[in-house]
Amino acid sequence: MKRLFISTVFALALCSSLDLCSESSMRIVPVSATPEPDHVNLKVIYPSEKKLCRSDSRGQIRITGLALGVDSEFPRKKEIFNDPKGQTLHMIIDNQPYFTITESDMDAWRGIDENSNEIALFDIPFALRPGMHVMRVFPARSFKESLKDKGCFAVRTFYHQNHDQRFFVDLCKPYLTYNEPQGTYFQQGCGQQGCNPQPILLDFYITNCQLSRDGYKVSVEIDHATKEILTSWQPYYIYGLKRGAHHIRLQLLDSNNQLVPGIFNNVERRFNIQ
Fold first, then answer.
1. Scanning 101, 143, 156, 227, which has the fewest C-beta atoms within 10 Å of its C-beta?
2. What range does the record give for the signal peptide (predicted)?
3. Spatial separation of the C-alpha atoms in residues 126 and 123, rounded to whole Å
4. Cβ contact 33:6 at 8 Å
5. Is 62 exposed, middle or buried, given 0-12, 13-18 or 19+ CB atoms closer than 10 A?
6. CA-to-CA distance for 268 and 97, rounded, in angstroms?
7. Residue from 54, 190, 69 nearest 118 by CA
């Protein structure tokens, strides 16, 4: 299936012509993926697979072929929210919202070895419950879009304090990793209607499957009302969201439009536009 590429000019014209500031005309529009850099590789060094971590909640990652802390020099950074922290790593523990690993996490360990690797030492910013945990990490552009090429995604199972099997997950089967939207977006409104003139990025990661009209799909529900089925793995823009709190749910569906079993395949998040 050919990917759908929609230019920014066309998308903005579509927003205007359809009056996307109306709540009933909110749209999810596919956009082209940002070009991938060559030879990006990500590896979790610590904790090692099925490692028992007694007390600390620190980790170490090696990233090759992508600089952290710099702006992603693509037109998209002017179309949607662009993080002043620059390019980062997005880290997800279990099914929690991601936290970022930035250039500052690399300062003490930064260096280029014979393989042009950079090393990041990071702290998990919340208390871990005893037992099993799953760590997922991938690089993101300064405008939060995930890199999706081979080698850009790493997953690791580890244990904290004991070997209790807190939940079951089969990482060889299809699963979904949620990325955006997340957090608070500080943007100007568009007149009396109070909606957001800039689109909001919708982005996710798919593992061990491909999306298609006749196969796996991703269901998107926004504010318990708007629901669309996505059949292509690429970034999307959400137009027409008003200021305030919003709710979003992503689900990975099979060819029969049934939820694929797995704790990562039904994800809910809240975000705000101010």
1. 227
2. 1-21
3. 9
4. no
5. middle
6. 10
7. 69
For residue range 186-223, list pLDDT tens digits in order: 875 554 455 557 899 999 999 999 999 999 999 999 99
Q: How many helical (H) and strand (E) elements, i.e. helices and strands, does the chain have? A: 1, 17
Residue 98 DSSP label: P
pLDDT at 53 over 50: yes
Q: Give the residue among 188, 102, 190, 86 at the shortest CA–CA distance from 143.
A: 86
Strands (E), the chain: 27-30, 41-46, 51-53, 58-64, 88-93, 99-101, 117-123, 131-140, 154-160, 175-180, 183-185, 200-207, 217-222, 226-230, 236-239, 244-253, 266-273
Query: What 3-state class would DSSP assign to 191?
Result: helix
The predicted model scores a pTM of 0.86
> In this structure, what are the phi and psi dihedrals at residue 60, rounded to the nearest 5 degrees?
-140, 130
How is residue 11 written in tokens?
């998308």
Query: Omega before 139 cis (within 30°)?
Result: no
